[in-house]
């Protein structure tokens, strides 16, 4: 599979976030992200507390069963950002999930669809720091078969996985209710982040037509 090229600059323009309450798995995900000193939160609209330097040997938390982060009801889930004009126009459809820390927000996961290297759409996952990389990522639409993805690369903002968005996967995303994204912490504990698919179908239609999202009633763009 050809690696899809990630365009984070396009993804973070006019970003509107789906907020997840900082509880259950989210609490220790935030601790995991803070411990690695991730700068990813600086890209979100709300400021996040300054992260502490990474410790040389952090104690492992008490093992726990697989957990699921619970999403809050969002006003708008998916958005489309576009750059350029004419043949150079490039659009991205995305949902950015952040955890509400009370004093700020921390990015947990960004799910994107954008043109890959061959200009065919690709599904991309921007993940947090502090993961057990050999486990990769699993994504599951509703109660369908889980699909495993390899974590392809990592940088100062997090780690990344991707898959070609073929017709079968696209149809499942359009017809589904929830995309479950599962990864492992450095302590090899499973965490599943549920991503609502409500609004994906219409957002993808805008993406395919090269139309950027318009604000919802009462919503303003930065």
From TrEMBL:
Residues 65-74 have a biased composition (Low complexity). Pfam families: IalB. Residues 50-64 have a biased composition (Pro residues). It comes from the Bacteria. Gene3D superfamilies: Invasion associated locus B (IalB) protein. Residues 41-76 are annotated as: Disordered. This is Invasion associated locus B family protein. The lineage of its organism: Bacteria, Pseudomonadati, Pseudomonadota, Alphaproteobacteria, Hyphomicrobiales.
